[in-house]
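tokens incoming
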């Protein structure tokens, strides 16, 4: 396989990593503090701050475009036009970069709130508005996806991975707090 020197960079991970120089044949490779892999930005500290900011920026402009391009203001028309294009951006490869900090979760939820902003629902809280529209918060959708994957692994959907991830312990106990 031929490698293109222009496309090859080194990313030094970790704070105690001695910064070494690497060569491709005779040419030194440049280093990079942020790299994109399968559409996900990863920095040298393995934080996803730049990925979160990019996702929020891409997603936040979509509701405005739909508002300008559609004359109808009915909920049945606007909801699919606003939420359907936003969610794929907010959920693409989320298993890798899922927000772990409350501020990051709130940033993404604000994007969804903007996408679901409609006349007649201004007086409702965020949770009530989502319930009224038949939607779930992004946090609940991530949790649901995680639970589905765990269930599939335990039920044999991913047999090669399940053996490494989970160990089923046979027990005759009926509760986790068994008596001695």
């Amino acid at each position: 396989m031929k490698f293109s020197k222009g496309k090859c960079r080194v990313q030094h991970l970790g704070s105690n990593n001695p910064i070494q120089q690497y060569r491709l044949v005779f040419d030194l490779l440049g280093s990079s503090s942020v790299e994109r892999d399968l559409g996900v930005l990863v920095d040298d500290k393995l934080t996803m701050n730049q990925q979160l900011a990019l996702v929020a920026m891409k997603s936040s402009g979509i509701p405005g475009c739909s508002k300008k391009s559609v004359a109808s203001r009915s909920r049945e028309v606007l909801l699919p036009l606003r939420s359907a294009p936003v969610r794929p951006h907010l959920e693409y490869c989320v298993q890798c970069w899922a927000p772990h900090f409350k501020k990051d979760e709130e940033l993404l939820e604000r994007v969804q709130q903007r996408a679901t902003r409609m006349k007649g629902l201004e007086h409702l809280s965020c949770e009530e508005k989502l319930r009224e529209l038949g939607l779930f918060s992004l946090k609940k959708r991530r949790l649901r996806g995680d639970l589905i994957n765990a269930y599939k692994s335990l039920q044999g959907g991913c047999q090669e991975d399940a053996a490494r991830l989970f160990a089923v312990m046979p027990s005759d106990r009926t509760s986790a707090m068994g008596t001695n």
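note: The mean pLDDT is 79.
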